[in-house]
């Protein structure tokens, strides 16, 4: 078995020379064999081993005896052992978690504490081939995709699983061969948990009636799917970059057209990568959530949104799909009178308006810059000001035969709803002279009869020092 473990270590690059490894040891057969195997290989790899044991406080005196057993076992091998007791049942109740999930969360939190204390770079856990097969079956029964069926991985981040190719039968034989007497958790022998039922009832039934090698078959299936999944992951990450339009804190924007052109398998990868980028969890979305996103995108209707777990919002805006965790902030309004010659800073959008009155003869050519526009000064009758939109606004865009609602103008230009309130409007009293960055009004254009020109320049936020 030791040669097989060594082969797994080398095949998956689980261990390097001079690694400092925290070994998670419960006291059961799997973890005791893991510690013993790594201890046997310590000189070959020049390893430094440390043991971490967490008392979950599920089994009273038996749990205390487990902790004492692990401490004695480590002392006999001269391995430093860290033992901690935590009230997992209480934590599970407080956090609304199952006992199994709460135990897993606190275990890995404790392992990380030990890693930092001893300066380790790996955490070894004792999942074996049977665990792999049970996980594949559990996920298959629950319903999952190719990624879920890859089940347990040999190594991910700091976590390594050197026994993942070793069966439980081989572990038991190893214990006999090396006179190891691990502790036995009696609850593992009772079909009270879903995994226990699969282990104690379903797998033996399949072995007897369908496939005596079901453990190896399921583990092999997981390995085959891992390779396929790795390829799709690579393609998915490339597609993710291609359809990404913009990324900022708490918000990701993608091309709707780009996503719709992709195969559905790549679309789901993009959604998972987006959720991981937003909330740090790749598996935050279930199949039903994926379907909702796909339906939203396929309709291609602007202004629609759906709410997903962990505060994720997916919404459409023209040809964009936006993933965000930020609720739309309350819209602010602004209004500033403008001098005929001067600088005015708009605090709400951090932009600056520069105005200047000049003689027509001093203008050599009309500016083509979208942020510099000229107006017939003599047509301005009321207070010159800059503000943002309000209900009922109308505007006569240059070149059109009449006015239209400002809202319709924004729609024509596909200006996102969230950005409309940030666009400055240069006004003569209530009359809009210029939708900054877009069109000026037909009413205030410079003509052959114009004598004085009002030059207005807008410096957007990126240009403000």
TrEMBL record:
The organism's place on the tree of life at top rank: Bacteria
Gene Ontology cellular-component terms listed: cytoplasm
Chief subcellular location: cytoplasm
Catalytic activity: cytidine(34) in tRNA(Ile2) + L-lysine + ATP = lysidine(34) in tRNA(Ile2) + AMP + diphosphate + H(+)
Gene Ontology BP term (one): tRNA modification
Subcellular localization(s) per the UniProt record: Cytoplasm
Alphabetically ordered keywords of this record: ATP-binding, Cytoplasm, Ligase, Nucleotide-binding, tRNA processing
Gene Ontology MF term list: ATP binding; tRNA(Ile)-lysidine synthase activity
EC number, UniProt record: 6.3.4.19
Residues the entry annotates as binding ATP: 26-31
Descriptive protein name: tRNA(Ile)-lysidine synthase
Origin species: Natronincola peptidivorans
Gene that encodes it: tilS
